[in-house]
Design goal:
The longest helix is centred in the middle third of the chain and has 49 residues. The protein is elongated and about 90 Å long. It has two domains: 108 residues, no CATH class; 178 residues. The chain has eleven helices and two strands, in the order αααααββαααααα. It has 311 residues and is mainly alpha-helical.
Amino acid sequence: MPARTMDAWRRRCDAARVIECAMRDSVYDLTALSERLFAEGRLRPLAGKIQRAQDLSSLHADLVMATECLDALDALLATPPQDDNLTKSITEASLLSNAVVLYARATKTTSDERRGYDPRDKFSPEQKIVHQELCDLRDKAIAHFGSGGSYTGEWKLERVVLDASVAEDVRVGVATRRKTVDKKLAARARSQIEFACELFRQLSRRQIDELTDELNKLAAADAELVNSEIHRHPLNLPMVLTSSDALVRIRALPIEISVMRFESRLIAADQKAIPSHGGSVRGLRRSRAARLAAAVAIRSDTQLRPSQHRG
């Protein structure tokens, strides 16, 4: 893993609350744990808190990425005109559209793989107007063709025309104009997205604290149970965060080697804990690869030692 990425992840770990039952010098995939617990119908409160922590962190990651798109847009708008103005204008339009889509995805939509959160009751009346404008742009202009609903600008203009401006050369055609960048819209979007990003950061942190409390409560009742449950899902985090090719490399390994790579030692609950939370934005972007990598290891372990995975 690049040193910068790992250092950022560790700094966020250092600031987080600790899990008293955690195992030292190892990383474990709580997402894989929650999926197994849901499938087995056990420890549902814990599984639910793990899933909700992932959902809220994922929503926050979308908003961080939306902010980064606007940062890149501002930097591009500040550059002088170039010889290749077409490339510049297309890039500007793409960055603004992507920021709008990411904002709407985080604050409005839901899917089978991620529960949403409706933040509108946390918005001021003015923010609710901008929220609706951005969502309308996503729904009625960017993702689907249209004029943008409550958007007050002109996102597109199309007219069939009869051009008789040149004598003896009358022609029928279609005139089309598409918006590339609306600087006032970009300013409104930045204010809205930055507010929502901080809101979701706080929600994510609160949920992680609740998950930490749940783990510690279970550990106080039966530390061996919690340790044994978590220990079944070790994860080679440096490999996963290094690149999206990590899963391919893991799958290419023989089953026995894959299991040995993910094997780790169970230690007593009263030993030094590892932090409960971490993950840079880059790490969040790789979360699906992390889940898949853990699933490969679990399936391999099941083939070799099925008795360890009985409910």
